[in-house]
Amino acid sequence: MGDVALRAGVAKTTLYRRWAGKNELVVDAVAVLFDELELPDLGSLSADVQGVVLQFAALLERPETKTALMAVVAESTRDEALRTRIRDSIVARQKRLVLLGRERAQERGELPSEADPATAARTADLIFDVIAGAVVHRALVSAEPVDADWAQRFTVLLIAGLGATASGRVDQKPGGSV
Amino acid sequence: MGDVALRAGVAKTTLYRRWAGKNELVVDAVAVLFDELELPDLGSLSADVQGVVLQFAALLERPETKTALMAVVAESTRDEALRTRIRDSIVARQKRLVLLGRERAQERGELPSEADPATAARTADLIFDVIAGAVVHRALVSAEPVDADWAQRFTVLLIAGLGATASGRVDQKPGGSV
DNA sequence: GGAGTTACGCTACGGGTCGTAGCGTATGGA
DNA sequence: TCCATACGCTACGACCCGTAGCGTAACTCC
């Protein structure tokens, strides 16, 4: 915090006049970093997914990003208010990427239109947790590279799974396709 | 740390004689917690996946587990040695669950046998990151419940994706099934 | 049985960081 | 000109990690 104030050229007390504490400041900083993510139209759902995966991985490779993100998530484990703040400021904002990607895929005819809005929202949440969770886990927990090959393999898995989810295969015993 | 020593009924210095520092102790503690995970044979790949997802989620709901895990992962962001220690003590150990689940599914005929061992290993790593990452992200970042409904939806997605991965569908533009 | 080794307990301390109190100061508008 | 608002600065309290140094008990080995 002293370092932050130093780099910002302000007094430490000024930081505490704008943010309630270290956690709040870090959440806001991370939220700004995540706003760099974009979803250019690469022509297919597969390419879009791979693109965002590699982009997210590149963001997570930057020391400030991964350290700040994980530190604040770890802290949120013991602070309910911080947890909701993370969800509102970071998670909810980036769901736009999933919604935009799905919309484009539907326009291309790669995914069917959603019938039930509630189911559509739950599916979007599922997709978001799968993508973000897998990339974070691969990069920061397993500590192995998120390269083009991995992104490609992950995308194959995800999109095939998406097809099953979208086609209403919600029986109690899935996996009958093999 | 003072609290740990107090609860253990030993002096703080004794802890530092057994572990190099707080991080190493926490990694070992988390590794023990993760060893509670089991993979009972529930009769189908789908049931096995749902079972382990719910079991993992229950483990992550316990305050000690989630706080300790995320704290040490966050710290590993700035400590390469700690990072490899986490990978060796926690991640690598729990890959047994994926390998066992796949083996059973192959015996049941739900998944084909692997031709290339290297590809099989990479696929196992992918599955592990997807499962662990999605559950952790859902529970601790999105801060939404990992209940039976979510586990069921996630399993449908994963197993359908597994089918695509296993059947050698590794073309540049997947998703042609929709 | 005596001497040495090993492991542990205990106190005190240094270092670092978060967050706050209190006070002085400048800027900008009425 | 006066007042309100915001900022800078110093000092400080509180907390926690990790270590130094020393005393002590148990255990082994001759």
Automatic annotation (TrEMBL), chains A, B:
One of its GO terms (molecular function) is DNA-binding transcription factor activity. Keywords: DNA-binding, Transcription, Transcription regulation. PROSITE patterns: HTH_TETR_2. Signal peptide: none annotated. The keyword Transmembrane helix does not apply. It comes from the Bacteria. Residues 1-37 form the HTH tetR-type domain. This is Transcriptional regulator. It comes from Streptomyces fulvorobeus. The lineage of its organism: Bacteria, Bacillati, Actinomycetota, Actinomycetes, Kitasatosporales.
